[in-house]
Design a protein that fits this description.
Length: 145
Amino acid sequence: MRPKNKIFLILFLIAIAIGAYYSFNPLLSSSEKNLENEKAELVLSSNDLVNAYSNNEKKSNNLYAGKIIEVTGTIKEITFLNNRNTIILNSNLETFGVICDLHSDEIEKIKQLKPNQKIRVKGICKGFLKDVILLNCTVDILPNE
């Protein structure tokens, strides 16, 4: 094999290895990332988030989906189904809310929570399916005003 062909083959194999690394690395890394120390890209209320999605889902997906957002609201419901801890935040639209799927490290905090309590959650927005969905949420308990 000529030296030019060897160099081309080596560069080609390196390019494939780099491409494979960047393709498979997100699949191998944990999706249960704790967001407590992460900075939120956007901060808003549960009312504002639900209103945005109910008015224009496509535009809201462009603004919020896949981003770490911080949402403030009052608790409508707390559930513990299928080994998942979930909080539903109220909104000014009765049939819609914000579903916050909590990170597994938040178990002690969730035991302190009650309906109608004001909280702030930080999570990754996944979009809108009758409710806005946030994943890997962390909770901050706020004083009721």
